[in-house]
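Researcher: Go.
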Amino acid sequence: MYEVFKKLLFQIDPEVAHDFTLKQFSKNPFYLKRMFPGIDPNEMAEVKSDNMTWRNRLGLAAGFDKNAIALDFLNHLGFGAIEIGTVTLKAQEGNERPRMWRHPEEFSLRNALGFPCKGAGFVKENTKLYDGAATLGINVGKNKNTSLDDCASEYRELVKIFEEDAGYLVINISSPNTKNLRKLQDQVFLKEILDEVNQERRLGVPLYIKISPDEDWSDSDTFVEFLIEENVQGLVCTNTTIRKDWGRGGASGGCLKAIARETQKKFLESSRKFSQFDIIAAGGISEREDLEDLHDAGCDFFQVYTALVYKGPSILDLGRTF
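Model: Structure:
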């Protein structure tokens, strides 16, 4: 059934197709649930860490449902976790269009969206009503026009708004589509953010940092130790990668696999001795072999996005594999 939809959707602009699909997930979940019955919960193995529990190892990465409008249907499909966002404090349009492209020859997508979001107030109305079995992750980022010097208080306010709704929180400092955002991966900037955020954390919700695959992570051991000292529970590895030969934006899917895997394994090794520190692997995951490779390296939590676009709900079969 999905292959029929995909053939039609791939004939129109990627962002238009995505928005149309998400709207259908939101407005017509009853009919779509009959067409796509989802994974039987009895066929999925729960996975736990010291910090959180997912009903299975396969989660949906941030970026697919930015405003949390389709949580009911996405939960029905059988994801172990659903990460929404990136959510910004104030509503913003994002970057100019066109800003999404398909690269089917490499099983990849590219976007230069720039955190389009209806704002924290709108998203909060959706997250506070969510009661699904999939763990809810909430990914937050700074507004486009907020300076790096002023963004710590913005992240703090976002944590304050969403902590009570989240199974886990993610601070996004690694999108290539917001100017200078990746500079926040520097420990000086990041410490300022975490010092602010930690003043607001009251409920013990685990906190993760989403990082770029394009950095020199030769100091991964030191970075993990720094994050543990700052009461961070793990990393989402990784965000999209820059492909200058393709044009602006960040690329995901098959073209990201090799560079994301290098970063994922580097941080899995650096965090191996810290049981309280999780790695959520995102980037280039589409096959059982990807999960097996990373699981052998010590990873328990995985996310997909591009694979859902290309393969449809059948990608949820990976939730049965462990």
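Model: The chain has a mean pLDDT of 96.
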